[in-house]
Design brief:
- With 179 residues, the protein is mainly alpha-helical.
- It contains 8 helices and 2 strands.
- The longest helix has 19 residues.
């Protein structure tokens, strides 16, 4: 007894093979050709991913921050340093977020996390590195750091949010005082 495949499943990528790279084309039906298929594909993918303010970084930020916290808690300096460096690289690659973009909301979530869970676990004499990283990012890109999420963060009565605002204002003042 042969079962027929429903139309929805028949059209899914699992049933139908992916389109070969040689059959892909750009808008305006520009055929692939001058570059190799791999180069053309890289160019196409790069074109699609060059909008960092449009991407959702929530999982990336959360994962790196949690790994950092895990390294602090279990005194795994290599894990803590690696997570901090990777998070720093992602924050640098984003640049100044556009006002109201999803990145700003992701940064506010990261700030909440950094200020709620760090401090006691990572006993350092100076400013806690994860907090320093997120406040420095916010201070450097202060012009793009606006929106409802940021206003709620600044107006928040929680101790951790007040600490963030205090640290942020100190960094903004340092930047303004530079010659």
């Amino acid at each position: 007894m042969e079962q027929s495949i429903p139309p929805i499943i028949r059209e899914s990528p699992a049933v139908n093979p992916l389109t070969p790279l040689k059959d892909l084309s750009w808008s305006g039906s520009r055929p692939l050709g001058k570059l190799s298929q791999a180069e053309e594909f890289e160019k196409w993918i790069g074109h699609e991913l060059r909008r960092p303010d449009q991407l959702d970084y929530e999982a990336t930020f959360q994962t790196h921050a949690e790994l950092y916290q895990l390294g602090c808690f279990y005194l795994l300096d290599e894990l803590k340093d690696m997570a901090w460096q990777r998070l720093r690289s992602v924050l640098i690659s984003i640049g100044t977020p556009k006002v109201g973009s999803r990145v700003v909301a992701n940064l506010v979530d990261l700030i909440h996390y950094a200020y709620e869970v760090t401090g006691d676990a990572c006993k350092v004499k100076e400013e806690e590195p994860l907090r320093k990283l997120v406040t420095t990012m916010a201070a450097i890109h202060f012009t793009g750091f606006k929106g409802a999420e940021v206003e709620q963060l600044i107006a928040s009565p929680t101790k951790s949010d007040r600490e963030f605002v205090s640290d942020l204002m100190a960094k903004v003042m340092q930047r303004l005082e530079r010659p």
